[in-house]
Amino acid sequence: xxxxxxxxxxxxxxxxxxxxxxxxxxxxxxxxxxxxxxxxxxxxxxxxxxxxxxxxxxxxxxxxxxxxxxxxxxxxxxxxxxxxxxxxxxxxxxxxxxxxxxxxxxxxxxxxxxxxxxxxxxxxxxxxxxxxxxxxxxxxxxxxxxxxxxxxxxxxxxxxxxxxxxxxxxxxxxxxxxxxxxxxxxxxxxxxxxxxxxxxxxxxxxxxxxxxxxxxxxxxxxxxxxxxxxxxxxxxxxxxxxxxxxxxxxxxxxxxxxxxxxxxxxxxxxxxxxxxxxxxxxxxxxxxxxxxxxxxxxxxxxxxxxxxxxxxxxxxxxxxxxxxxxxxxxxxxxxxxxxxxxxxxxxxxxxxxxxxxxxxxxxxxxxxxxxxxxxxxxxxxxxxxxxxxx
Length: 390
Fold this sequence. Notes:
The chain has 10 helices and 10 strands. The chain has a 4-stranded mixed β-sheet with strand order 1-4-5-8. It is of the alpha+beta class. Helix content is 51%, strand content 14%.
């Protein structure tokens, strides 16, 4: 038997710990100082993008053969978690770059991978993911966007809604119906470029949180693209979209984990400094129990998320799909529910100050809410889990 010092079964590797230290230092120095202004002004966090690109942390998941860092799924989770700890809007840069490009990695031709993953890895382009529509949210298979074959091109028409980083990203993975008679098996995936004729964007949505991440409609008006921009075979787009979400829901769990940790860290510091009735608020047992519950739930969410990331990595390496769908949904659902609870409790611990914009916890609470909704509502996650019980 190995000695206890070598027992690494439930511990991230030294490389993962070093990555966390590096990304946390970067996030504290280059992203945190702008988080309040990004939220207040509802503007894209350009400082965060610049800092992430300068340190090759904007799309760490891209394989080395296409110029990327080739980071594993847990490393990607740690990057997203540490950025979300200071600014959830900024954490959508690495998260959505993975979401948008993973269909190309999973199902794209070698030509597509070379063409689109290189610029992403360099930081010359960002990727977004276009699945939802005005009438097709949770029921994504009910989409109406069409792609009609015309010689060696496809012509796309439709509207995509709730598209993260729309207008900023250069590349869009778009799901569209190629055979209306087959429902989900008649949906195909394509890469659409922002510069393609007929692509335009709606006004930015006015949102409760993640205000620094633009969410807009994407309009496709007779967008004519070469047939070789199809990702995988015709009719396989929906299957690719669902496989993608199995992996990327874990990145939403990472965001939730990060914002929960950020809120706990802030609240913990605050109650130690704040005095009432002649002693620090942290000395009151009721407050201690709140902090203990917050920390316990975060730790449970972290273990579930990291285990799901490890499973995602094994599956990506060809280790069979068993259990990833359940585990990805469970991590996302549990961690986002924890994030909402913990950030709400953090506001409570700061009292009246928690309710003001002078302190970051009210922003964290607003930002946490979306993690229960996007990439599949937590109600949908429960349906997914029930269908895939281990």
